[in-house]
Amino acid sequence: EAQVTQNPRYLITVTGKKLTVTCSQNMNHEYMSWYRQDPGLGLRQIYYSMNVEVTDKGDVPEGYKVSRKEKRNFPLILESPSPNQTSLYFCASSLQGVDNEQFFGPGTRLTVL
Amino acid sequence: GENVEQHPSTLSVQEGDSAVIKCTYSDSASNYFPWYKQELGKGPQLIIDIRSNVGEKKDQRIAVTLNKTAKHFSLHITETQPEDSAVYFCAARPWGNNRLAFGKGNQVVVIP
Prior knowledge:
The structure holds two protein chains of two kinds. Helix content of chain A is 0%, strand content 50%. Chain A has strands spanning 4-7, 10-13, 19-25, 31-38, 42-51, 54-57, 65-66, 76-78, 87-94, 103-104, 108-112. In chain A, strands 2, 4, 5, 6, 9, 10 and 11 form a seven-stranded mixed sheet that branches. Chain A is an all-beta fold. Chain A has no helices and eleven strands. Chain B contains no helices and eleven strands. Chain B is globular, with a radius of gyration of 13 Å. The A-B interface holds A 4, 31, 35, 40-45, 48, 50, 56, 58-59, 90, 92, 97-99, 101-102, 104-107 and B 1, 31-32, 34, 36, 42-46, 49, 51, 89, 91, 93, 97-105.
């Protein structure tokens, strides 16, 4: 089944404890992206990747890191999480670029205490 | 950067009636405008999109219209059904940019 998977789906952590949210797609898509969703703010893009080893900042990259070593994986890294990073995170992928259909993962609910 | 606004924030309609959601954008060079539907507890899913060289696009009960002069585009849902209840996000892609700017979302409630 073609899909985008994220792990974990739910995470409660404490300020400053490094964490990684994994994202994987099995559709051989070139474009991958991370978004955060907050009440009243909609979806905001954190980072995106056009292809392997090519990443770029979105609208709200501060406090996040990403890597794209393999085409299928695009992990989101929070080196030192803070409470303002409490949010619902979505990974998405598309065949080529942002003007193709983006397939979203199921989301990761992160709480930073 | 691109700024996308959606109106109204919440829309309630009777089952069978039509629903219209409007989005405005700020960058006249934007050239791709998708609409995503998000059901409770799920990720957004593309339902329809339109490019700047087209004025209208339909897919069964769903249509999108684009007015480039006024810099707005609208989602039209006809014969609404309970399963149309969801949050709808519009977005715009500025020309030459590999990012999407999303609106804040509209909650649509279809009343049986």
